[in-house]
Amino acid sequence: MILEATASTAQLAPSSIAGILWVIPALPIVVSGVIALLKQPQRKPATGLAIGALSISLLLSLVAFARVVAGWAHGIAVREVVNFTWARVGPTGLELGWVLDPLAAIMLVMVSFVGLLIFIYSVGYMEHDENFTRFFCFLSLFAGAMLGVVISNSLLLLFMCWEIVGLTSYLLIGFWYQKPSAAAAAKKAFITTRFGDVFFLLGIVWFFAQTGTLLFYNHGLGSLEPLSLAVVATNHAGLGLSAAGAIGLLIFAGAAGKSGQLPLHVWLPDAMEGPTPVSALIHAATMVAAGVYLIARVYPLMQVGAGPGGSTTALTVVAWVGAATAVFAALIAVAQNDIKRILAYSTISQLGYMMAGLGLGGVAVGMFHLITHAFFKALLFLGAGSVIHGCHEEQDIRRMGGLRVDMPLTFATYGIGMLALCGFPIAFSGFWSKDAILESAQHWSVAKTPFYLLVFGAVLTAFYMTRQICYVFLGYWRGHGEAHESPTVMTLPLAVLAFFAMALGVIGTPAWPWFHAFLENRAPGLDMHAFIEPSFLALLSTSTLIVAIGIGLGWWLYGNKSPKPEAPDALEKTAPHVWAALRDRLYVDEFYGVTIIAFYAWWARVADWFDRRVWGGIVAVVTWLFNFWARFNRTLDMNWVDGSFDKSCEELSNSGGLLARVQGGRVQNYLRILAVAVVVLAAVLLWSSRP
Amino acid sequence: MESPLAGYLLVAALLFAIGLAGALVRRNAILVLIGIELMLNAANLNLIAFWRYGPHPEALTGMMFAIFSIAVAAAEAAVGLGLVISIYRHANTTELDKMNRMKG
Amino acid sequence: MSPIFYLLAVLTLGGGLAAVTLKHLVHCALATTVAFAGLALLFLQLDAQFAGFAQILVYIGAVAILIVFAILLTRGSDLPKEGVFSKTWPVGLVIAAAVFAVLGWAVLQSVHAVPLQTAAPSVTVHDIGVALVGRYVLPLEIVALLLTAATIGAVIVAMHEKERTR
Fold this sequence. Notes:
The complex is a heterotrimer. Chain A is mainly α. Chain A is built from 27 helices and five strands. Helices cover about 70% and strands about 5% of the residues of chain A. The radius of gyration of chain A is 38 Å and the shape is elongated. Chain B is mostly helical. Chain B has a single domain, classed as Helix Hairpins. Helix content of chain B is about 75%, strand content about 0%. Chain B is built from three helices and no strands. By secondary structure, chain C is mainly α. Chain C folds into two domains: about 1-80, NADH-ubiquinone/plastoquinone oxidoreductase chain 6, subunit NuoJ (Four Helix Bundle (Hemerythrin (Met), subunit A)); about 125-165, no CATH class. Chain C has helices spanning about 5-20, 25-45, 50-75, 90-110, 125-135, 135-160, 160-165. The chains are: A mainly alpha, B mainly alpha, C mainly alpha. At the A-C interface, α27 of A face α4 of C.
């Protein structure tokens, strides 16, 4: 291992935090292994280890973040890399390494902070579950792997951690594996993301082949640095794409799988089979964000070849897919009745926004929405978990209601999260992040359609969230039993997340765009006049209008009414066919079932037939040949070889017997033979001497 | 007129054939030995006949030969009969057919 | 050929024939003795007096007695059940006949080469004694050795095995 820790610009001395950055993901992974070795009932050690490890990771992440901020404050673009070669193969080898730059630093803090809050929440939520320790083992493993994805400087290391993240997602979705639906959902998630990962791997291999290195940044030799990018940009890949564009699209395919973009989104709603903290952590805040983070990470590759203010093929595709996903998922969310399903489709929709932000506006725009979304979506999920817990494991919103009275804390925090998600102006972070995306969509040079799609999506978002709030918290209680508030260990994280859902908006306003400046390494500049610029005011009014229409429509249709669970939905009454289509998720799963799954089943049958008949046939023929040959040999051996040998031995024996009879042991016979011999001899002599 | 030698020789040949027949035909071992003695006697007769009617009878060759033959024949008869007695003690029979332990 | 010759020939041959054809072993032994006697007389006829008397002494006096003793010790008086002649006696007879035929042929073929009557040699015992220790001393010694070995051998072979099995 050859460790080289340097800063990309020589002004600051290489920091010690970059050298031990690997501890941040390694610690939770190690703890996960330790917990795996514990016996089941030992909850306190498991909890202590997991939360302790992640706290230390959070601390180290904050130190790293401080380091980067310090560098940025001095005007230095901090990008510290630590690279090493894992296995040498001739001149190159498998290069791994980690990087510390603003993007990584922000993600580190977000993942460890939100992760820690959810860990604490899980202590209360999973209290009655007997597989408590297994849960924390997997959670810890996930946290470590996600942090690994964040700091990875090598495509290979990123892919390895990416796959571990997928694995833990599978393990956690199928946590209650005795339920067939949970096991099926886990399998679906794994296979769908794996499908995307195939393209991702192709992209990695192609990228490596083009640039000759697996590392992103390596003092000018890395694959995302200008030298390599020039190579990739000029090579052509057919279909009018440059190699960069093709690789970018392949990597986006992998991101699309992980982040639930349009064709590969089918696993996310089913993933709600897992425990709610899992949904909050993995399927809202972090894992699904990994795809967005990946695109942000390889943004130089996606962007190469674009003129100023222009776009590349890859980014255009990203933007369109994102916009389409946003609207598609929002439409389906309108007609769902499971509290977590609504949030799942909302997540898919917001992921579409993030991707659109990346494609339309750049890294900062997309990442800002990612960070704010992490907080308020985690908040919403944990709130939903609190609601489910309080309603005695009820998940159908038509059997809830009036919870603002029974669960006030949950209601308050949930409300804050909902408003953040809708993009309620000024006070909520979601407004600022979504606003940035809409602004970049409006100024996109290629087309204006994504802007209209995103606006429509925002209206739908406000609408369905209002519907959910009306069903769950307003009106009167329609469920069974008594609803009760959740314990403090669950409501405290809610409060913390709610605070951040509101406060994070501050760092992304046009007046003081700290976030964007931080990522792009420029000074933010405090400019209150940005608030009264015409473009900003126009956008502000547009957003307000969007939110007003959405919330107003929702209130008008659902308001304080609490229809009976069996009664059709208000919207359903007006357009039953549309409603049915939306409720059945626009038949995407069924489409897949008919095409891909049916094809795969057919293919499996063909392969089975082939295996049994053709290969099995060949094996049978060979076996038969061998048998025949063996039997033939045996016959040969027994009848010919043995037989001839036996026969000749028999003949020998017989002749010996015959000969032996001469030596009969009877003296008189000997004498007779002697006499005969003498007679013959004498006769011959006499005959020859005749005169 | 033929020589008397031929007569003696023929008698000896006949005696020899009779002795041989006895040795080949009889079952009892002692009779085989008797046959052998007859054969030896026939040979002695031959020797004496040739000595009498052959050249240089004063050399006593024939006579000596015959005397020595008698002596050897006596010794051989003693040993042979001793063997027969010994075998009789072992196998309790003197039949030659039953003494075939030397068979192949 | 003098009539004595024919008489003695008949005696000898008759004795021999009787010796091989009689059933009782003792009768055979006696017939053998007769044959020996005939032969001794034939020797006398041939002017070989010493050989004749030696024949009587050794053969009749020792060998015949020995045969009788052997018959006695092996219970030769008991007759075997299957008969005295072996099962394949014609073969033996034919072989003996063939032998006689060959010998006879040889004799008759060369009968003209044999000289006629020669003078009777006069042989004294003194001459025989001189010849024995003179010219034929080596055969004498060897025969002596042979007789010793044969005697010892016969004694050992025929010795009662009772001593050995004790």
